[in-house]
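Consider the following input, taken from an annotated entry for Roadblock/LAMTOR2 domain-containing protein (Dendroctonus ponderosae).
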Amino acid sequence: MVEEIKNSLQEILTKIDGLYCIMFTDRDGVPLLKVHTDKAPEPAVKPSFISTFCIAIDQGSKLGLGKTNTMICMYSQYQVVQMNKLPLIITCVANQKCNTGQILALETQLDPIVTALTLSVSEG
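Applying the prediction step yields:
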């Protein structure tokens, strides 16, 4: 099953120009599933970077803004799109020219994978 999911995610990487990485982690940034190209920047896929997302969404809810669903961070060369699917976090890393709307549209495609991973994590 994991290989099928990885193949599906690898296919998505090839379809979206500029998308370098799709990663599923827990809220502490521990990777559960990751597909990437050789262009994926190493610092953006480290657990310490991913876990800051959870801190940011907690702060947003304390400000009365409600539940954070998605966070988009733009840097000089990269963009990082993170989706809140607690207990999992989906992180997509792309170049600065990648169509952010295409990445956001992946959410519905990735929901079945989130469900499968959540079940396997809770069973394990």
